[in-house]
Amino acid sequence: MEQNKKESLNFIEQLIEGDLKEGNVQKVYTRFPPEPNGYLHIGHAKSICLNFGVAQKYEGQCHLRFDDTNPEKEETEYVEAIKADIKWLGFDWGSSEYYASDYFEQLYELAVRLIEKGAAYVDELSAVQFNELKGSPTEPGKESPFRDRPIVESLEIFEAMKSGAFQDGERVLRAKIDMSSPNMHMRDPILYRIKHMEHHRTGSKWCIYPTYDFAHGQSDSMEKITHSLCTLEFEVHRPLYDWLIRELGIHPSKQTEFARLNLSYTIVSKRSLRELVEGHYVAGWDDPRMPTISGIRRRGFTAKSIRKFTDTIGVARRDGITDVALLEHAVREDLNKTAHRIFGIMDPVKLIITNWPEDHQEIMMAENNPEDENSGTREMPFTRELFIDRSDFMEDPPSPRKWFRLGPDREVRLKKGYIIKCTGFKKSEKGEVIEIYAEYDPNTKSGQDTSGKKVKGTLGWVSAPHAVAVEIRMYDRLFLIENLNKIEDDFKNHLNPDSLTINTQALLEPSARDAQVGDQFQFERIGYFRVDEDSHSEKLIFNRTLTLRDGWTKKNK
User: Fold this and answer.
1) Which label site among 58, 147, 295, 438 has the fewest CB atoms less than 10 Å from its CB?
2) pLDDT per residue over 496-526, tens digit each?
3) Is position 201 annotated as part of the catalytic site?
4) CA torsion through residues 412, 416, 418, 420, sign
């Protein structure tokens, strides 16, 4: 039994269990280190679930640390959004909220220590000049003429940089490592640069800022992080991470890389997402078409389904692409158990039951969710005039074996109601069907049917006098291309022009009238929908979360 349990562990869990067993660590400390320069996306959700998840599993602690070392693009808005996203996913960092900016003084002192050791120097070359010396992965670079400047001189200039004596780009602090290293990140990387701009937390106190590579590992060390879990793009940065820890003689945090989440039909680059927002290709970071956590939350994806999805795909050592249908399946599976059912008529046409008394109303009862016996029931008024969906009627239908809905002389059941038979229809001057006429069989009431009739078609409906007019935002995938990592042109050339269509004709049953922002429903036979934040007292607005089934493959063949 124990052997089977071990076989189910991913490689990171195996590493942690080995460290605990060998006594390398006594308590597991992980961290989730977002840069507050944008909103988190679905790829970050995988990292959040991993870092917080393993800390919980091994009774450790996961720190939330904002790597806020670049004031040029960082804002408090992003900090608050990131915290909201993590809490929504179901995780809590408690009192362990940190910022790289908390350590600016200590990081500066560590940089001074490197200079004093002769392991760092102040360089005066411009970025263009240094790149000319840097070489290529197959050719060694050349050393900067400032590389061997006296330690005292570097210390004095570094202090002057801190005091604001130089303009942006005039000086940088570089690590003195190896200009012939096959790893380009080891060719005297920048540790500090000058940026005269306000920081969202420290204001104008600093005009020099550490690079991510310098701040990250040292912040890990100061927090005694035992397992620094990063995505694979940071694998080439690990030698620098380890070199800095060795040179400084500080707590030996260890970096381990795992495969990032790449989803089909999805961009998971914060830079690209920012481009979509700033170029107004979407309505904002929380646009329901966006793969940001705030976007998919607004669309109606659930935190539970995202956690289940990350568990299902697991943790790998090598990059690949995951079918977005797996994520959508997890969402459908969760919503099927929790979302209340209602009837939604997307393209309504009036149905008149001609043998029903004009002022008579009968209340039909329907369960809110057949998957949840505790979900209760709702009342559905049945009246002479109803609405059904236009797609459920055909004036010249094929054989009954191929058409199970309504047509002249055809019988169907109105779900939770009666069996009806179409007796005729009326068309407008433009040739559009505007009214359908039918008669009901009073012996066929749902749950009390004594007629012995058998019909294959069952239709949704709403009472015309009680129908609730709503706006439906029909969201679809934002991109047409499955693997956006392989395209050579501008990714925006592959946007789906039909990723959003708006339906202002839709009608819902009256139980939807009291729906609140965030409520989620399954419109029977149609899909899953969520009440959007744009709703107001005059109109409910629903976002389509997903269709009931994945019709994308068939639609795009």
Assistant:
1) 147
2) 999 999 999 999 999 999 999 999 999 999 9
3) no
4) negative
Selected catalytic residue, list 13, 35, 385, 471: 35
For the chain, the maximum distance between any two Cα atoms, rounded to a whole number of angstroms, is 101
Token duo for residue 497: 């022009």
Q: Which run of H or of E encompasses 19? A: helix 11-22
Share of the chain above pLDDT 90, in %: 92
User: Is 260 one of the catalytic residues?
Assistant: yes
Radius of gyration of the chain (CA): 31
Q: Are 532 and 542 spatial neighbours (Cβ–Cβ below 8 Å)?
A: yes
35 in catalytic set: yes
H-state helical runs in 260-405: 270-278, 293-299, 303-313, 324-338
Span(s) in the chain for CATH 2.40.240.10: 270-340+470-555, 348-460
Residue 323: CA atoms inside 13 Å, Cβ hemisphere, count? 8
Predicted confidence at residue 485, as pLDDT, reads 86
CATH number of the structural domain 270-340+470-555: 2.40.240.10
Homologous superfamily of domain range 348-460: Ribosomal Protein L25; Chain P (2.40.240.10)
Partnered with residue 53 across adjacent β-strands are none
Catalytic residue among 176, 187, 201, 260: 260
Cα distance between residue 417 and residue 363, in whole Å: 9
Q: Which one of 46, 270, 299, 410 is the catalytic residue?
A: 270
- Number of other CB atoms surrounding residue 26 within 10 Å: 9
Mean pLDDT throughout 131-160? 97
- Residues 265, 306: Cα–Cα separation, whole Å: 17
